[in-house]
């Protein structure tokens, strides 16, 4: 399994730690298909709310990001298990409130 830690500029803090001083376990948030725009949007949303993230690029996707500039197989997104519900609410587009005109 290949892991890639995303540390975007402006993320508040680092990966959280438990009472024993160990890193909180990562929890699966979502799989993003091979669309680079969707991957960038998810990164921006999570970063803006200070949620650190791990990306796993299946099927040698990291090599694709080096050669082609994007991961054709998409990316699996993981967040700290203590922040999973918040992250789900942030990326859930059903929660978007439309303004009344």
Give a brief description.
The protein has a domain at 26-91: Alpha-Beta Plaits, CATH 3.30.70.
Please state the overall shape, judged from the principal axes of the Cα atoms: globular
Distance between the termini: 49 Å
Helix and strand run? EEHEHEH
| CATH fold-level label of the domain at 26-91 | Alpha-Beta Plaits
Low-confidence stretches: 8-13
Mean pLDDT: 75
- CATH level 1 name of the domain at 26-91: Alpha Beta
For the biggest β-sheet, the strand order reads 1-3-4-2
Largest sheet: 4 strands, antiparallel
The CATH architecture of the domain at 26-91? 2-Layer Sandwich
Number of helices: 3
The radius of gyration is 15 Å
Helix content: 25-40%
Class by alpha and beta content: alpha+beta
Beta-strand percentage? 15-25%
Number of strands: 4
Model description:
It is a single chain. It is globular and about 40 Å long. It has a domain of 66 residues: Alpha-Beta Plaits (2-Layer Sandwich). The chain has 3 helices and 4 strands; from the N terminus they run ββαβαβα. It has a 4-stranded antiparallel beta sheet, with helices on one face. 21% of the residues are buried. It is α+β, with helices and mostly antiparallel strands. Helix content is 28%, strand content 20%. It starts with a strand and ends in a 10-residue tail after the last helix.
